[in-house]
Write a structure and sequence with these properties.
The structure is a homotrimer. Chain A is α/β, with parallel strands linked by helices. In chain A, 37% of the residues lie in helices and 17% in strands. Chain A folds into 2 domains: 4-93, Rossmann fold (3-Layer(aba) Sandwich), CATH 3.40.50; 100-251, NAD(P)-binding Rossmann-like Domain (Rossmann fold), CATH 3.40.50. In chain A, the strands form 2 sheets. Chain A has a 6-stranded mixed sheet with strand order 6-5-7-8-10-9. The first copy, chain A, has a 5-stranded parallel sheet with strand order 2-1-3-4-11, with helices on both faces.
Chain lengths: 287, 287, 287
């Protein structure tokens, strides 16, 4: 019986990336949907649960992707709302790659240092930043989540939405008014994650290299300039300025393994719902 | 050479149900199209007939589905209009699952009782009801097709469209003004099919159980409450109140086998056109 | 690792023809996109380059098709614009089948006669005509490209767009005002290609059969009436009226082999870009 992945994408065209990775994770058939809303999702998936017997529903799974994380969350919730007794399938959310990316980075950090009790600062309130903060908190870090100071942009990245999302996730984000205020937040930090958008330098080398307590740094930005000045995208927990640093390509390479492991997990039962926590559990095993 | 099914769906998103069943019936590749109109269909299929030699066109077939039966019928007709000499492929219509569902139910009834000459009443003028009535008539039943009394709804289900469609199919539908009038229609009936919409009880247990002539009852409604009070969806021609009753899940399970048998038939030649009659012939063999 | 073809179609629905031929050329998985614009194309393909290592990108390719050749050219350019260092894949343009069709016909002519120095006339300024003229010129023909005289239509086929496209391709198209002027253009021609639209007779038998210098004729029109009166679509370089003639079905059959050979070529490296020249090189080997 062919393993079927129903790919629900909230963008107009379904992601080729998600499709190819699914094929590489042994999915036999893709049913690809673009422009999927939470309203339309139940209609798309509901009948599928009746094509195979309840004992065979581990052969069907739902993938939710796209560039809009809240839209993806709403689609995943709508899919779960269509479950009916034993008529349910495993499903995973990875809009914007945020779950697999954050889970991979934090798992890599957790593999080299005990995180419980460690003061951590995540700079950047995008989907990856918020998820990273959530995972660090679950590992026992004392997490500070900070918006990027407006002076770093000149744009509106540090939006109310990022703050609201962080608060919904149980975080208490702070808004440093200046780079000096951001620097003060790093006082005593052991772990620092730069989760800014492409093209924005979050911290200068001067700032992070002279901080005496920082031990671990990670940067999610794969394009030039890096979010952490002086960190190379390929740095895979190498030592720079006396600290262990992790670059975006080193995260991204391992993320592919996590992504595929998650897909395979979906087909082990019809009851798996993989959001950030479930993905992280798998990342801890794979990384 | 891969068996290719061109799936034309009149709904915006192509049905995952139809796709998965096709894969389970050994289709190798699906070319899925949503939002297909009769105007667009010939353009989609025409070139496909020239990809493989005329002697190899049994390896390509067209499936027409979606929730709108008249739209599906128009698409199937448009596909046939694009045939050009030997450049043609087999095609099937199963919008709303109506053909496979009605064919399966009637075939199951025909397997346990000679239908020729039997008075039959179909209550409900949806696609499944109308097709069931057509098939019962072909088996020689004296068929009465009745709308569901408005008192059962409070809505407009008993629409002019249902009446018009039934008339186009050569049936002479009646509109009972009350439940008493509907009950009178059952006088002398041997076979009764409830083909109402989800959530509408078509007949009370009191009505069908006290009717002295009814021998066979079938209910297409899989959700609570059943269309026939007291019938369980899983009833597979079991005896209740001295009558043989057939529930929606018992129909649905067997429908899956009919559906797959039809798909396999499409790939036996390039000349099969499966509408209600062709599907019924297959159902009689499979059920 | 599955061979994946990302099919970008500029028409609303992706071509079933292109999909089936790809499957027949051993593509394992199709990612089909309809309604693709040059603006949207980079977004669709970019991430795909990061799913597999740079050393494995020969397993992914991009196909650009649809009925609009300039739109297809823009999409192909946009795809190439998304390449990033080693992160690139092979790609091919065959909007309207124009590249494979013109390349096949010219390759068949080149196989039976030395074309260098031969006077050639292409009648018709559609995509296939313009590409044929380009290829004949590259083979060393003295090419005249002519619009079809308006008297043959009564419509606006001989549009400014056709003239403009021909000029952009470095050709110098002429516009015969009458059939007599067209006939004069054939004086001294050795090779004549009729590249008119379906249903338009480009030259009467009288005209081409009495011309003393014409040796080779080809007609791209597969439907009645033929573009060259008296030529049968199946004529595969057979002699008629003392000339070798090539009909549309004889071209089309061989075109399928060229089309599949091109697809296979795409998966031999991640650096092939097949437009008319690249397709022609393959056609010379296959025909």
């Amino acid at each position: 019986m062919k393993k079927v992945l129903i790919q629900l994408d909230t963008d107009p065209q379904p992601s080729a990336f998600d499709s190819i990775v699914a094929l590489d994770a042994d999915v036999d058939a893709l049913l690809r949907y673009g422009g999927v809303s939470a309203e339309a999702a139940p209609e798309i998936v509901r009948d599928a649960f009746f094509t195979r017997g309840p004992g065979e529903l581990a052969t069907i799974a739902v993938w939710v992707g796209g560039s809009n994380v809240p839209a993806g969350e709403a689609v995943l919730a709508a899919v779960q709302g269509a479950f009916f007794g034993p008529f349910r399938v495993s499903a995973m959310l990875d809009s914007n790659g945020a779950n697999t990316t954050a889970a991979t980075a934090v798992a890599k950090l957790a593999a080299v240092r005990e995180l419980a009790g460690a003061p951590a600062v995540v700079v950047g309130l995008g989907a990856v930043g918020v998820r990273s903060a959530t995972l660090l908190a679950r590992e026992g870090c004392e997490v500070t989540v900070a918006a990027i100071p407006a002076s770093r942009f000149g744009d509106d990245y540090r939006t109310p939405r990022g703050l609201a999302v962080a608060r919904e996730m149980g975080l208490d984000p702070v808004e440093p008014a200046s780079e000096e205020e951001l620097e003060e937040l790093l006082d005593g930090a052991a772990v620092v994650l730069a989760a800014g958008p492409a093209g924005v330098q979050v911290l200068s080398r001067e700032v992070w290299s002279t901080n005496p307590t920082i031990e671990l740094l990670a940067d999610y930005n794969a394009t030039e300039p890096p979010g952490l000045e002086g960190v190379e995208a390929g740095d895979d927990l190498v030592e720079r300025e006396g600290k262990l640093v992790l670059g975006a390509i080193a995260i991204g390479g391992r993320k592919m393994k996590v992504h595929k492991a998650c897909l395979r997990r979906l087909f082990e039962s019809n009851e798996e719902i993989l959001e950030v926590d479930g993905v992280y559990e798998i990342a801890r095993q794979v990384v």
